[in-house]
Design brief:
The complex is a heterodimer. Chain A is an all-alpha fold. Helix content of chain A is 73%, strand content 2%. Chain A is globular. Chain B is mainly alpha-helical. Chain B starts with a helix and ends in a 13-residue tail after the last helix. Classes of the chains: A mainly alpha, B mainly alpha.
């Protein structure tokens, strides 16, 4: 190797080229993704609810951080179906609410151990998804959406009155007593020392573990040959069929997996609130998860989680804002701003569907690509200049 | 009360309940069948129809919502129910035209899921707009006493009980709802089946590209079809308003049964929508009398059974379904 060849790479290192390249290589790895998720999950409640300046600005609180992770698990699972397999289900409330009820009923009658609750709720959701998926997937397109909607509504009305002896009907399932984890740790208690500052309660830690697990599982599925088939089905179902894949079986499996994620989330929701509202089975709940997922960006791993964060933030924090003022001036732009939160969300949702179908994550991605593009151009210019300088010596 | 009269009452109640579904489903069905546009905002048109009907027919006091805060203590023209039956469908027809032109048209070439998502979003926006303006509480929509009263002419009585043979006394308004629905649906049927306009629409349902190649401007019939579908939803809002509660969630609540009516009847088939609506109405009415706890479950169970055994719907034609 001559000196001439070695030189450019050294210069690359100087302007950060290889460092960036190294990051680009690491970025796609499962370990990196899961590790970064774990770190973000660990610092999120601190930044959101306790950090000096940031949390004062965000006005966040601990229980909302927990709720965001729970819905996040739901959204990741839902996106496996909508974003990656291309199936729009309007019936996921059945799995979310069904698992919530199953976990609650088990807690009341069998055992309040959180693990037992999650396992039984998830099991129920998976079985339910198996049956409903088997029935709904016989039709494609809008019929699939409407069939899932019909089945989910059926469960809502069943829980409302014929099964009221189990579900407590309109009042929702009250008096769920969540036991302590492994019989030792009370989930409401704070995590001791530094963990307490970061994570807050044990409940958050418990949910956080499931969230990181959900990310790892979803990432593994999506980057496996199995997940590639999901994407193939989304892109062109007929071709996937011609290649010899059993499309129906893969669709059913995507539906069941996604139902399972909804089940984990639903069970955690019961543990979080110690209560199951009847509303959790209503079709607007399915609509909420659709809105969150699409808002954040269907077809991306973390977009839906972003959507969940935005939705719940607007629902719980922005809705309490009394008046929207221009910062530091006290000039009131909109009085009773919080009152319009749902309208605001609806408008944003319509705009997103219309203009940027890949959601907020898509926008961020384009910004990132733009920055990378600008960065590489700047690096090239820098290199060119330094080479010119070298030539002049 | 004999068994026969019980059965007849259930039949009449079922027909009345079904009539609202039929009005919504016929409109929805011609839109989905002809334009291949999946409109999850159809319930929002029903909502608009109900509030517009309330506005034209009566003058109700407002206690909640932004309108009340802005100083409007009451809301309405109070010019009678018949005027509402005339003006509201025209108004909602106009809303339908705007919706086709500025929303639906942009989505004809996009996937079904996008159509569902954007119209679902629109339904949320409309619902929340009404919640902001009128508050979440229910407004009173009284049944009209008489319609068509001008000056000395007292008008036709439409409310109160009427004595029917065998059945005995039956709320007269419910019969009017059935009658109005029957007339309107018959008109739409005649329009689609026996006019040149209908011919173009039906041809467009089969093969829109071919119709275009034959030199027929299909955009115009399309926008009218959307308008008619919307107007029917508006009528459903006006005639159904006095029978149900009136609040901003009625649109999203009625959307699901309306869609199921279309799907079990067979997309694009007017007769199917009528049949589906009647099946749903009768089932609900029967279950309300015999097993009230299951009254709502029955509707969805029937929908599921029909779709699983006859996926194209009761009177559906497999070829024209999207």
């Amino acid at each position: 190797m001559s000196e001439k060849d070695a030189n450019p790479s050294a210069k690359d290192a100087l302007v950060g080229g290889t460092l960036f390249g190294r990051w680009e290589k690491l970025r796609g790895r499962e370990g990196t993704v899961v590790g970064i998720t774990a770190i973000l999950v660990a610092v999120f409640p601190y930044l959101f609810a306790r950090a000096p300046v940031v949390s004062g600005f965000l006005q966040g609180y601990q229980s909302l951080a927990t709720l965001i992770l729970i819905w996040g698990i739901f959204a990741i699972g839902f996106d496996l179906l909508l974003g990656y397999t291309g199936l729009l289900s309007f019936g996921h409330a059945a799995f979310w609410g069904g698992a919530a009820y199953a976990a609650g009923i088990v807690a009341k009658n069998v055992s309040g151990d959180p693990i037992v609750m999650v396992v039984s709720g998830t099991l129920f959701a998976v079985l339910l998804a198996w049956v409903l998926g088997f029935l709904s997937l016989r039709r494609g397109g809008i019929y699939f959406s409407i069939l899932t909607l019909a089945f989910a509504q059926m469960f809502y009305y069943m829980a409302a009155s014929p099964l009221a002896f189990l579900t407590n009907g309109e009042n929702g399932l009250t008096g769920v007593e969540v036991g302590s984890f492994l019989g030792v740790i009370h989930l409401e208690a704070d995590v001791p020392s530094i963990g307490g500052m970061l994570l807050g309660t044990w409940l958050y830690a418990f949910v956080g573990v499931f969230f990181v697990g959900a990310v790892a599982v979803a990432y593994r599925i999506l980057n496996s040959p199995y997940g590639m088939v999901f994407r193939a089905i989304r892109e062109n179902e007929q071709r996937a069929e011609f290649v010899g894949l059993n499309v129906w079986r893969y669709k059913l499996m995507a539906f069941i997996i996604s139902g399972g994620f909804a089940g984990v989330a639903g069970s955690l929701f019961t543990i979080h609130g110690a209560y199951v509202p009847l509303q959790s089975l209503f079709w607007t709940e399915s609509g909420d998860i659709v809105v969150m997922t699409v808002l954040g960006g269907a077809g991306s791993m973390f977009g839906p989680v972003l959507g969940v964060g935005l939705y719940l933030y607007i629902e719980n924090i922005v809705s309490t804002i009394q008046a929207l003022t221009i910062p530091f001036t006290g000039i009131v732009l909109v009085r009773d701003f919080g009152f319009y939160w749902h309208l605001l969300l609806g408008v944003v949702f319509v705009v997103v569907v219309w203009v940027v179908p890949d959601g907020l994550w898509g926008i961020l991605n384009r910004l990132r690509e733009l920055a990378v593009d600008l960065g590489s151009k700047a690096a090239k210019r820098l290199r060119a200049r330094s080479e010119n300088g070298g030539g002049g010596q | 009360m004999s068994l026969l009269s019980d059965v007849l009452v259930i039949l009449l109640n079922g027909l009345q309940q079904g009539a609202i579904y039929v009005l919504l489903a016929v409109g929805l069905s011609i839109i989905v069948g002809t334009l291949k546009f999946v409109n999850f905002a159809h319930g929002a048109l029903y909502l608009v129809g109900t509030y517009a009907g309330l506005f034209v027919a009566l003058n109700v006091p407002l206690s909640n919502g932004k309108l009340a805060e802005w100083g409007f203590s009451s809301f309405g023209l109070d010019i009678g129910f018949f005027a509402a039956l005339i003006f509201v469908p025209l108004f909602v027809f106009g809303v339908g035209l705007l919706m086709e032109r500025y929303l639906a048209r942009a989505f004809y070439d996009r996937p079904d899921t996008d159509q569902i998502l954007v119209t679902f979003g629109l339904a949320i926006v409309v619902q929340e707009l009404f919640r902001v303006l009128f508050g979440s509480n229910s407004l009173p929509f009284e049944q009209p006493e008489r319609i068509l009263s001008f000056g000395s002419f007292a008008g036709l009585p439409v409310s109160g009980p009427i004595a029917l043979p065998i059945v005995g006394n039956f709320p007269q308004w419910r019969l009017w709802v059935i009658g109005i629905t029957a007339v309107l649906v018959a008109l739409v049927y005649l329009l689609v089946e026996y006019t040149d306009f209908g011919l173009v629409v039906r041809a467009g349902t089969r093969d829109a590209e071919m119709v275009r190649l034959l030199g027929i401007k299909i955009t115009r019939p399309y926008i009218v079809v959307f308008g008619i579908g919307a107007a029917l939803a508006g009528v459903a809002g006006v005639v159904g308003g006095p029978l149900n509660v009136v609040n901003p969630t009625i649109g999203t609540n009625i959307l699901v049964p309306a869609f199921l009516t279309v799907v079990i009847g067979g997309v694009g088939s007017i007769a199917g929508a009528v049949l589906g609506g009647i099946v749903f109405g009768l089932t609900t009415a029967a279950l309300v009398s015999f097993a009230p706890a299951w009254s709502q479950v029955g509707l969805y169970a029937i929908a599921a059974i029909v779709l699983l055994t006859r996926p194209q719907g009761l009177l559906g034609d497999e070829e024209v379904t999207p």
